[in-house]
Amino acid sequence: MAVAVIGVGMTKFGRDLEHQLPELAFKAVEDALRDAGISREDVGFVAFANVGGWSSEFFPLPIVCEYAGLNPKGGMRVEAACASGSAALAIACMAVESGYTDIALAIGAERMNELSTSAVVELLGRGGNFFWEFETFGLTFPAYYALLAKAYMDEYGASEGDLAKIAVKNHYYGSMNPKAQFQKRITVEDVLSSRYVAWPLKLYDCSPITDGAAAAIVASEKVASKLTDTPVWVKAQGIATAPANLTMRNDLLSIESAVEAAGQAYRKAGIDDPVKSLDLALVHDCFTIAEIIAYEDLGFARKGEGYLLAREEQTYIGGIIPVNTDGGLKAKGHPVGASGLAMIYEAVKQLRQEIERGRQAPIRRGQALVHNVGGTGHFAYVTILSLEKP
Amino acid sequence: MAVAVIGVGMTKFGRDLEHQLPELAFKAVEDALRDAGISREDVGFVAFANVGGWSSEFFPLPIVCEYAGLNPKGGMRVEAACASGSAALAIACMAVESGYTDIALAIGAERMNELSTSAVVELLGRGGNFFWEFETFGLTFPAYYALLAKAYMDEYGASEGDLAKIAVKNHYYGSMNPKAQFQKRITVEDVLSSRYVAWPLKLYDCSPITDGAAAAIVASEKVASKLTDTPVWVKAQGIATAPANLTMRNDLLSIESAVEAAGQAYRKAGIDDPVKSLDLALVHDCFTIAEIIAYEDLGFARKGEGYLLAREEQTYIGGIIPVNTDGGLKAKGHPVGASGLAMIYEAVKQLRQEIERGRQAPIRRGQALVHNVGGTGHFAYVTILSLEKP
Asked: Does ipTM exceed 0.90?
């Protein structure tokens, strides 16, 4: 059974301690309900993406549902590390496809600044492999991705300047996105002169710590066709997991779970050549190197040539495939549980051509891809959205 | 599309710090795979129920999938407080019903003794409503349920002795269950003379802190009919949420979410009179009062008369409906994320008549109910299992 996204919503991302977690979630839900033209009573199931750990609330979904008036039709909290938002979307779609409900709501929210930066870095650091990597070697998340960057640069000859071009592009689009945490353009020189966080990654190679929420409402074919003229269909989803330990991976030049999830999604959607089939992609640029590796894992570039897309500016609008037209995690911000749904928000708005001037991609094929990675590739979710009913 | 449970597994519940979380999960998974007669490669999706907070692992699913050899077909962690196990089952069923996969695995595991008892009590206490109840009034979980017990006893005239009879029954069945944490019979006098934890609840009114894991494998009709002669069908599930705040509830004499979830499940399953339609029930007896309230919320007794079922021993085998033939959370143990799946384990084994002598209920209608509550009724999941295909 076909399932469509009929409404999306999100808060402005940034440092926001003025709003409690349920307030952030509510703002995104309200925005999505308005976008879908339905009321909260129409929602039959709620999946809530939240990694937590920074918040005092131990069971956040009930507080969110209570505040947003969604009782008694809640559901569960879902966590797939930084891919939690896509996991919530997957469950919401399954709830509709299985016939459990006609309309389901996926919410993602995070209030990360409740903790200090160092405490957030420690908590996320545990998310590699606690025992073998964090406790034994003291690895943090920038350090995990620094290992990938070093391996990639050594193997293929990419430079720190190539990585910097990802940050420059994403800040460029962030500068035009009123919901982005950073709305300031930067230069390659700004990136290269920023301080090292974990060599070769510098401050501007890293996504920030963010408070924010995003939501998507999905509906069955029957209901979607009644409610909207612009349904955006969830054409395919690929879901995969991989070892937490980096030492258990086959190599550091690729995210195995992302390759697997993309393969699943492309097969289901009948996509042979993604660059020729997609109008744009939102990819998981938690660090600049992650976006370059994503180009290869998703088949936008051949293995070892992803950095050339960055160098040649082929992932700007006008290039072979626009990527992260919302500023990406890098500039839009990365409230971990909300990030996957914020990507869905951007993909849906792009396909509907409702984006601000300057960052609306041309929509010719009517298809967009969302690539959402959890941990260092522990999880990967790849979603294909389409204007054409599957 | 009909979905059947084709295999179940669980560890012996108890205090078990000799096994890490992935080892506990693996033992339950291995048991379930053996029971289903399939191999891990046949599993297409994994939902992992885990509340966590006591463990150092921040993202436990990848570690569990890696250890159990389930990559790359993992999925997500799900949390619905102490109803997480049922939430994982719900998602596994939806993954099959939606056509995402033919065979899905729900796992629940918890290693609660990693923290001290007082730290566990503090963490769970936050699970009421952190801001309004835990931080402001210092309520812990026994205290929440003590409020319900006091209200119930005042309103209906139930005694501490009536509550004690629940503990005695559940220890009686626990004494015959080799997987139970406590395998010792107790008397009403033992309960009444145990120390107060939160008046009127005493030590023996409370479920223990437990390490353990449970798993269930579900399959599509087509696959189930090939793999087993004894499929146990998931006939209906009801899912509901309610305000976290006790002060926001209509009364303290009932768990609103459980009434809602039971209503949904009964409607879907076409059950008018549960006592006449079910062979047995597994209910969420985190405290003795919770089992008595469950009798009323589930329609086994009229409102205000649940304690009479306890007093008259009507929920033993031979009574009007056997309840918690495995010892319940009280005696079998309550590793929170695993508990819902351990109830499914018991219901499936009972329906298949594979239970030890003395605690096998007569199976005449071929239907069992599982009632799994999260928090103080933040969540409720009610599942109807049946030998008859829906």
From this structure: yes
